[in-house]
Amino acid sequence: MESSINTCKLIKLPKIENSKGNLTPISNGVEIPFDVKRVYYLYDVPGGETRGGHAHKKLEQFIVAAAGSFDIILNNGKERKTVKLNTADYGLYIPRMVWRELANFSTGAICLVLASYEYDEEEYIRNFDEFLEMVKD
Ligand code: TYD
Asked: Which pLDDT does position 1 carry in this prediction?
């Protein structure tokens, strides 16, 4: 049940530029390939701290660096790839069954996450060995 690392996609978002500041809209099912059921954001992440460290059995996510920057390290059990998010007009789509870690948060970074389902601890995979077992051919 391997999911290709290339199905994780950087997606360009609209940017409405103005001398008074920029605006980026994200509409359900338009810029991103799922209906958004939940939005949350990570902030005040202490320097050197990492987040994530899990995969999801069914959840799809779209992650934006709404402020600052951070790295997302993706792993599908075979390939590993690091994506840096550092501009608010790009986001990373992550399908189900991809292990992800978030690291190297800049001071003041805000990690905005759009998710395809409500929070459900049951659909998390938090053990990497269990994840590897689930994605092996
Ligand atoms: P977790 O998803 O592990 O955070 P991250 O991947 O950013 O490191 O969630 C951290 C804690 O917050 C965990 O106890 C579950 C809780 N939580 C909710 O209650 N609701 C939510 O929507 C999310 C994403 C997490």
From this structure: 54
